[in-house]
Each structure stands twice: as C-alpha cells, then as structure tokens.
UniProtKB/TrEMBL annotation:
Subcellular location: Membrane
One GO CC term, this protein: membrane
Residue intervals passing through the bilayer: 29-48, 54-74, 86-108, 114-135, 156-176, 188-213, 268-286, 317-338, 350-368, 609-629, 641-664
Main location: membrane
Keywords: Membrane, Peptide transport, Protein transport, Symport, Transmembrane, Transmembrane helix, Transport
Name recorded for this polypeptide: Solute carrier family 15 member 2-like
One Pfam family named in its UniProt record: PTR2
Gene Ontology molecular-function annotations: oligopeptide transmembrane transporter activity; symporter activity
Membrane topology: Multi-pass membrane protein
Ranges where the record places region Disordered: 669-701
Record family assignment: Belongs to the major facilitator superfamily. Proton-dependent oligopeptide transporter (POT/PTR) (TC 2.A.17) family.
Length: 701
C-alpha cells in the first residue's frame, strides 16, 4: 500500500511525512502563539510586576527544555515514539485548555486564575518538551536507508514548518489579544484558545496518519545506558583505585562491565559536553526576546504611519522572519565568500562569532532603553512625593509651601505644559498657601511618600479652594494611553471614548484613569443630560501617555483642554530592528552551527545524548535570566549591559576551550574489526577474574 502511495506522490517521500509536517506546524503555532502573549498576560491580566513576569516566563521556558529528557526516556525505553507523541500531546492539549479557561475573568477569583494558569503551563511544558525529541526522529524513521537524500530534505522542510508556525503565530495571536475585545478588555481567553485549537488539530492530524507510519519498537535508552556507564566507572574507581592505578582515563574503570566501544563513544561525547558548559549564557540573552524585549516595546511608539500599528508582542515575529531570510544568505553567500577569502571558519569559530553578535544585540537594546526611559517619570525617592497643579480658577494663582520654593512663578489658568514637582512627604498634613486676586487662603492635604498627586485649584463666589487626587505616573503596561477627565461644570457628565465609558461627577471632580486604545479621537460623545449631548475633539491619544482632560464651559459650550501628565513614548519601535537583526545573525551562526557540530562529533547511536545536552543548555540559560530578574534589581539598561558583558566574557572562555579542542571523525569507530566487539565480553570476564585474584591476594596480605 505504501508503494502505491509513493507512486501517487510521484516521489520517494512516504505519504506519512505529510501528517508529521502538518502536526509540527500546528504544534509550533500552538506553542509560540501562546508564548508570544504570555508576558503581557502576566502583567495586565494577573497584575504581576515586570520582574515576577519575567521570572515566571523564563521558569516556564526552562521547564520546556528540561522535559525532553523525560520524553526521550519514555519513548526509547517503554512506549516508542508514536505512543509517546500521542499520549503527551493529550497532556499538551489539556494544558492549553486549562490555560485558556484560566484567562476567563468570570471563572473564579484571581487565585483561581493564577492556579489554573500555572497548572496549564506545567502541563504544556511536559507536553511540548516530551514530544520535542520524538517528532523529528519519528519523521526520520519513515525513510528507508536507500533514501538518505530525501531524508535530509525532509529535515529542511521540517525546520521550515517550525519557523512558518512560529512566524504566523507571533503575528496572529497578539491581534487576537488586542484587537478582539471580550469580557471588557483584551481577549486573552481567545489568544490562548486558538493555540489550544491548533494543538487539537495537530493531535488529530498525527493520529490520522497512524495507519501509514513506519514504527520502530523501543530499543532501550542510550542516555540511560551512558549515565549507568559513567556512574559505574566513578563507583569502580572509588572502590578499586588503590589496587590499580594504571588506567589512563577515568572511564576505563567501566571496562569490567561495558564494552570498549561504548566507553570510547562516551569519551567522544563528553569532550563535546564539556564545550557545552559556557553555552547557556547565549540562550540567557536569546530567550529574552519574549520577556524583556517585549516589555521594552510596550514603552515605544508602535505606529507606522496613520494606518498601521504593530503590537509589542508582535515584534517577536521578526526573529522567525529573519531566520528564514538569513539561512540561505549565509549558506549561499556569506560562508562561501569567507571561504573564498581563505579564512578557515570552523564550526566552533562560527559559534563564538554568534556570541559576539548576541552581545552586540544587547548593547543595542541598552542604547534603545536609555532613550526609552527619558519619557518615563522616574521613581519617587523615599521621604518625597510628586505634585502637579491644575489651575482652573480663571486667573493666575501663586502657590507657596513653607520651607520650599518649588513654585516660584505664578501658575496660569489651564497652564500647559505643567510638570511634577518634588515635595517632602512624611505622612503628615501638608499646608499650602494659595494667593488668588490678592487674597490668601490655605489648602491642607496629607501626602504619602513615594506617591504622586494632582492639586486642583478652583474658585467660586466664596473664594479660592483646592482639592487633591492621586495620580498614576507609571506608563501603561500594554503600551496604550491612560485617560481621565476633570469636570469643572455644575453637572455630572457621561462620556464614551473608543468604547470605554467615563462617568464624572459635578463640581471639580476627577474620574479614575482608564486605558483606551491609541488613536485619533476627533468626535467623542458626551452628555450632561439625556437631551444635552455634544462632541469633543481629543485629538491624538498616543502610546504610553497619561492624559487629564479638563472639561470647562465656555459661551454655553463644553470645551476640552487636554493635559499630558506622562509624556507619550517618543522612541519608535523600529529602533528595535537592529537588535533583532543582530540576535538573529547570532542565532544562525551559533544555534544552527552548534547542532551541526554536535551531530558531526557524535557517534551514530550517541546523537540523542548530545541532543539532550544541547537542550539542557537552553534550560539553564533561562535559569540564569530567572535568577538575575528576581535577584539583581538593576535598572533595565544596566541589566542589558550586564548580560552583554557576561556573554563577552563567556566568548573568551569558549574561544580558549575551542582552541584546544581536537575535531574527531566518529565514523572511525565503525572501522574497528567486528571481532573486537564480539570478544569484549570474554575480555571483561578475564579482566574480572584477574582483578578478583588481585583483590583476594591483597586481602590476605
């Protein structure tokens, strides 16, 4: 039947790989789509701070790269690749569904949302990590040995499906999150639900091809055998070293139980694993695209002209897009050009160069961050507070604070711009002297330290008065503007701004800050009574800004005066492109070359061991970010420079290690006479007898 299907396809490709490629595309869409919006979900839905959000994001990423070892163990030792993929995909789907339910606001309270989210992420980590080492290998199993060239092309197609799924998901899921409104806000339930649906499709498609697959039964886990061999060598050396000190290598102490061929293969693998020790630092930088770089994007201007606006979590799609562009450029142009210049660029030199590019990417990110924070109101020091003044008294006022000269000049009516001034704050009552039309009065309010306030100065027939309101001076975490209204009219007002409703009481009252979408608002509808409605022109409400709109009555009309409390983001998101270009160049030279190097330096039956070691470097890289995010407490641009400096230091260490590394040809092991392997068991028995006699003689003595 398979032969007929090959003829129908007109190639030597088995039809079964179509199911595997579609499965991988859907699974990668599912994983990267969910992960693209994860950091903003922690910030805006669970209301965690940036450091906790970053730490949990990287803890999840780390778990996703620890669990492949478990998946490989299950597949090779018990269930086989097919059943492992099916069973763990079911776990994967359940995790996505639980995660989506946790994003529905009406399901329980915040503790329920956190519990469901964490449970869902754990199940997803076990699912995606468990099937990671199985799917590609299962695809390779579908080809017969005489079709090795088709197998190599399959892996290229397989890798393209991964990047295609990643690219589409990082474009689509942020749109589902931000452009679709549900439950009164961003629709995270939909943004997580669509990846869940794609994972269900992946599972159904994979099972749909079950009758076509070529399956190999479990043949024992080589990783487990390697660990047992190493453990036996260490244990044996500890027990018998005083009787025999002539063995050249510590692994030779396993010869009593394991074949010389296996020991020699493990020695080759360990040489490569030692080179892996510095590699986690590269991944510590690379995986921050979905955390720190996304957070940076929320404080930037994301508009490309008047019609196109990108979302902060969509910038991650640049990496997948650039990967698809750079791989052929490097393979067909850069590397041949370097070779033409007679520069010997070995795999390890490529990897070291990739580290430099990743470090440069974080230096670029630090430069961008320095400019980004210029529009951010700095944190208020201990013992101080911030105060800005809204003068709606229809005349100039003088404000004096005993012991301070922060307002030396008259404050004009509806003055704009206005700035925050720093005042002492002790939690006790603060007295301010206000002079208006030659008359003085006092305003009293209690100021708490490290807080920000607006002082509203207004007048009526009895004189000048003031009241205060608490301010929100940090930028909105999703990048959208914040808006509030100050009503100076004698009637309560209802307004609707882009679907967001505001109710403002009469008599110099301030509405709470609310998030609105960035955009032009030339026709905002407001009503002070059912039969008294009008429209206001608020102009552009820009990314990251906080606005106070003062509503006054002039000549019988309601007029809006827009004040900018926190400046809009003035650094365009296009300035992130250089850092994405640099980190992707680093990935091409480091990641892809690293995989090729690992496979070229490993014996055929040890490639899975090195694959597990490679995935662990990614896991430990995320652990590094987790530790720094929770423990360092540095300003963001300093943290970026710290990571860049650490990777440069690792570059020098890795370069020295690479200089002393000797490339090997694993195929040389296959040139050993077969008789040598067949006699290994007899040789081990003889060695055991000799060692036993020596031990008995030493015991007698």
């Amino acid at each position: 039947m398979k032969t007929d299907m090959k003829k129908l396809c007109g190639t030597n490709y088995p039809v079964s790989i179509c199911f595997i490629v579609v499965n991988e595309f859907c699974e990668r869409f599912s994983y990267y789509g969910m992960k693209a919006v994860l950091t903003l979900y922690f910030l805006t839905y669970l209301h965690w701070d940036k450091d906790q959000s970053t730490a949990v994001y990287h803890a999840f990423s780390s778990l996703c790269y620890f669990t492949p070892i478990l998946g490989a163990l299950i597949a090779d030792s018990w269930l086989g690749k097919f059943k492992t993929i099916v069973y763990l995909s079911v776990v994967y789907v359940i995790g996505h569904v639980v995660k989506s339910v946790g994003a529905i606001p009406t399901v329980g309270n915040s503790n329920v949302h956190i519990s469901l989210s964490m449970l869902g992420l754990i199940l997803i980590a076990f699912g995606t990590g468990g099937i990671k080492p199985c799917v590609a290998a299962f695809g390779g199993d579908q080809f017969d040995e005489e079709h090795a060239s088709e197998r190599r092309k399959f892996f290229s197609i397989f890798y393209m499906s991964i990047n295609a799924g990643s690219l589409l998901s990082t474009v689509i899921t942020p749109i589902l999150r931000g452009d679709v409104q549900c439950f009164g806000g961003d629709c995270y339930a939909l943004a997580f639900g669509v990846p869940a649906a794609l994972m269900i499709v992946a599972l159904v498609v994979f099972i749909g091809g079950s009758g076509l697959y070529k399956r190999t039964p479990p043949q024992g886990n080589i990783l487990l055998e390697v660990c047992n061999c190493i453990g036996f060598a260490i244990k044996n050396r500890w027990k018998r070293s005083k009787y025999d000190s002539k063995r050249k290598h510590w692994l030779d102490w396993a010869e009593e139980k394991y074949s010389k061929r296996l020991i020699q293969e493990i020695k080759m693998v360990l040489k490569v694993l030692v080179l892996y020790i510095p590699l986690p630092m590269f991944w510590a930088l690379f995986d921050q695209q979905g955390s720190r770089w996304t957070l940076q994007a929320t404080r930037m201007n994301m508009a490309f002209g008047d019609s196109f606006v990108i979302k902060p979590d969509q910038m991650q799609m640049l990496n997948a897009l650039l990967i698809l562009l750079f791989i052929p450029v490097f393979d067909l142009l850069i590397y041949p050009l370097v070779g033409f210049c007679r520069i010997n660029i070995t795999p390890l030199r490529k990897m070291a160069t990739g580290m430099i590019f990743a470090s440069l990417a974080f230096i670029a990110a630090a430069l961008v961050e320095v400019n980004v924070v210029r529009s951010v109101v700095g944190p208020v020091p201990v013992g101080r507070c911030l105060l800005q003044v809204f003068n709606v008294a229809e005349g100039d006022v003088m404000l004096k604070i005993p012991g301070s000269d922060v307002f030396p000049h008259p404050i004009r009516y509806l003055q704009d711009p206005h700035t925050y001034e720093m005042l002492p704050a002790s939690g006790e009552q603060l007295t301010l002297e206000v002079t208006f039309n030659g008359k003085q009065s006092e305003c009293n309010f209690t100021s708490d330290q490290q807080e920000a306030y607006s002082l509203i100065v207004y007048s009526d027939s009895t004189g000048v008065h003031c009241q205060h309101a608490s301010d929100h001076i940090t930028k909105n975490e999703d990048g959208n503007p914040l808006l509030r209204f100050l009503n100076t009219r004698p009637h309560a007002i209802n307004l609707t701004v882009g679907g967001v409703s505001f109710q403002v009481s009469a008599g110099f009252s301030m509405s709470p800050n609310k998030t609105v979408d960035r955009g032009q608002y030339p026709d905002v509808r407001g009503c002070s009574a059912p039969d008294r409605c009008w429209s206001l022109d608020l102009g552009l409400l820009d990314f990251g800004a906080s606005y106070t709109v003062v509503l006054t009555e002039e000549s019988g009309l309601t007029v809006a005066h827009k004040m900018e409390d926190v400046k809009a983001n003035d650094v365009h998101i296009a300035w992130q492109i250089p850092q994405y270009v640099l980190i992707t160049v680093g990935e091409v030279m480091f990641s892809i070359t690293g995989l090729e190097f690992s496979y070229s330096q490993a014996p055929a039956n040890m490639k899975s061991v090195l694959q597990a070691g490679w995935l662990l470097t990614v896991a430990f890289g995320n652990v590094i970010v987790l530790i720094v995010a929770e423990g360092a407490g540095l300003e963001q641009w300093i943290e970026f420079l710290l990571f860049a400096g650490l990777l440069l230091a690792v570059f020098f260490i890795f370069s020295i290690m690479a200089y002393f590394y000797t490339y090997v040809d694993p195929d040389q092991l296959d040139k050993k006479p077969r008789e040598e392997d067949e006699d290994d068991e007899d040789m081990m028995k003889k060695a055991n007898d000799v060692q036993l006699n020596k031990t008995r003689k030493s015991t007698r003595l």
